[in-house]
Amino acid sequence: MVDKKDKDQSIAMIPPDGEVNPIDTDYTIGQDNISYKFGPYGVDIHNPVFGTSALIVILFVVVTLLFQAQAEPLFSSLRDWLTGNLYWFFIGAGNILVLVCLFLIVSPLGKVRIGGTEAKPDFSYLGWFSMLFAAGMGIGLMFYGVSEPLSHFGSAMGGTASENGVRTDWAPLGGAAGDAQAAIRLGMAATIYHWALHPWAIYSVLALGLALFSFNKGLPLTVRSIFYPILGERVWGWPGHVIDIVAIFATLFGLATSLGIGASQAAAGLGYLFNLPDGTTMQVLLIIGITLLALISVVAGLEAGVQRLSQINMVLAALLMLFVIIVGPTLAIATGFFTNLASYLQHLPALANPIGREDANFAQGWTAFYWAWWISWSPFVGMFIARVSRGRTVREFLISVLLIPSAACVLWMTVFGTTAISQVVRDGYNVAADAALPLQLFAMLDVLPLAQITSFIGIILVVVFFVTSSDSGSLVIDTIGAGGKVQAPVVQRVFWCTFEGLVAIALILGGGLVALQAMAVSTGFPFTIILLVACWSLIKGLASEPRTGKS
Q1: Between the CA of residue 365 and those of 161, 165, 190, 203, 400, what are the distances in Å?
Q2: Fewest beta carbons within 10 Å, which of 194, 358, 445, 495?
Q3: CB neighbours of residue 291 within 10 Å
Q4: Which residues on adjacent β-strands are paired with residue 167?
Q5: What pLDDT does residue 199 have?
Q6: DSSP 162
Q7: With contact defined as beta carbons under 8 Å apart, do 533 and 292 qualify?
Q8: In what helix (H) or strand (E) does residue 214 lie, and over which residues does it extend?
Q9: Using an 8 Å Cβ cutoff, are 489 and 30 in contact?
């Protein structure tokens, strides 16, 4: 047992309150690390994990930049093969993770308390819910809040099309040819499917595993710790190294995908507002500039500043959403929230079906990519959720993490999606629907009052989400690369923050959105396997814990 003053070395060292069943191991956090001091700077790295990950990432960036022409068709083929042949695996894995969460909620294991039987929550419900809500907001919602509902609505309205007996359309399920109301319901159901229960189940499983094995079992805050019930002491050897290396790759490329998407939207917005050139060069310059901002926050240790910036960003996002509710189709938005939820529940069994799908383009191009992307983000978001959830019971944790962020995402998609679709159906305004994906948010805002101001706010939101994601993501990757140490030397975070930007640049130059999607799917696939195995290990870990009388 250590004193709480030492908790800065690792969050796993915070002593539990009440009864727990800790894992008895001789392993100590950082025992396999290599430490060097260079004047005021130093490194403290888990050599097999950091060294292998860093070398492969550097080689990836160099090779991709050197062979840009060859990279684009390679990335395209890789994405198409993975989503075309393994879409059933991604969809099925998402279903399994949802079922595991539901099982834990209703089972006696739901009474296990994170941090010990007497542990008290570190945050009030309001503060905790706010952080869960913040975890659900980001570049993805800014990019897809308008474009995804519009895309699904348009493809559903267009109905199905076949060539040589194979469907070539992008409509979800069987579409809704010519029926605007049915197309709206199906389009919003498909959107909510991608942003509500399933993705948050993905985050919940990993977050709960990290929290349990850190706060209750006393192990390092790394993904490998979850697998101790299966691997035993071998988890500190190469089996564990591989797990953490895959987690780093998944997180790095998942972040790079988001950063690349954010850069494309910010560049499109600047071009739309100020007639600046919108292209690859602008996107690269934006990534460089915003990565530099993230580096400043990393080097200066501006955690409090970044936290305030994130809070300001959340307020701006809420104000932007409130503005759209007021000046947009207010009644349609108000009724649409509940109608969309009902449509989601109605279509959920068919949307979640992993086999015998005829809507191949939708299942492969949308759902398989999304699930891989969510899974690649799970170490990042999962570690954040774990660190703020000490003192909650498993049942309380899962219900909240599944429902609160899901409701926030449904509300956001309803507000922006309903407004954009209403402009098409009610007003005959098709500019947003016909615009490129990065431009659709700005085209939708263009016909609302104060369009210049709200579009500029949209760009600010994307940029700040970019900065905070890069800064926080580098901390998570560094924690894994430092063997579970949360307060590792800052130079390591500088390295990962820099290479998040370089990977995003390499992918944009080597194939744009296709390349970004390809690497998210490629790294998401092996981590999906890890996540599925983690379910069994998590259940075993929970079964050995004492339970509280309260749920």
Answers
A1: 16, 19, 13, 21, 30
A2: 358
A3: 24
A4: 162
A5: 94
A6: E
A7: no
A8: none
A9: no
| Side chain identity at residue 521, one-letter code | V
Give the pairing of strands 162-163 and 166-167. Answer: antiparallel
Angle at which helix 490-509 crosses helix 280-300, to 10 degrees, equals 170
Q: Is-contact 221 484, C-beta < 8 A?
A: yes
Sequence-ordered list of residues with C-beta below 8 angstroms from that of 506, at least 6 positions apart, any chain:
60, 61, 64, 65
**What is the DSSP track for 58-101?**
HHHHHHHHHTHHHHHHHHHHHHHHHHHHHHHHHHHHHHHHHHHH
Q: Is 357 left (phi over 0), alpha (psi -120 to 50) or beta?
A: beta
Reference 30, options 57, 50, 5, 14; nearest CA is: 50
User: Which residue, 426, 439, 157, 127, is CA-closest to 272?
Assistant: 439
Question: Residue 77 and residue 60: Cα distance in Å, rounded?
Answer: 17
> Cα 501 from chain centroid?
17
- State residue 113 phi and psi, 5-degree precision: -105, 130
Q: Which of 195, 121, 88, 95 is nearest to 416 (CA)?
A: 195
pLDDT band of 315, cuts 50, 70, 90: confident
Average pLDDT, the chain: 89
Q: Measured between alpha carbons, how far is residue 47 from residues 44, 177, 477 in Å?
A: 9, 57, 14
Q: Per residue in 487-506, pLDDT tens?
A: 778 889 899 999 989 999 99
Higher pLDDT, 132 or 208: 208
What is the DSSP secondary structure assignment for residue 172, as one 8-state letter?
Answer: S
CB 287 within 8 A of CB 504: yes
Q: Which long-range contacts (CB under 8 A, 24 or more apart) does 426-433 make?
A: 426/329, 432/146, 432/150, 433/150, 433/154
DSSP 309-341: HHHHHHHHHHHHHHHHHHHS-HHHHHHHHHHHH
3-state secondary structure of 534: helix
Q: What is the largest CA-CA distance in the chain?
A: 70
Residue 269's nearest CA partner among 139, 377, 369, 374 is 139
CA separation for the pair 474, 461 (Å, rounded)? 20
3-state secondary structure of 488: coil
The runs of H, that is alpha helices, within 197-237 are 197-211, 228-231
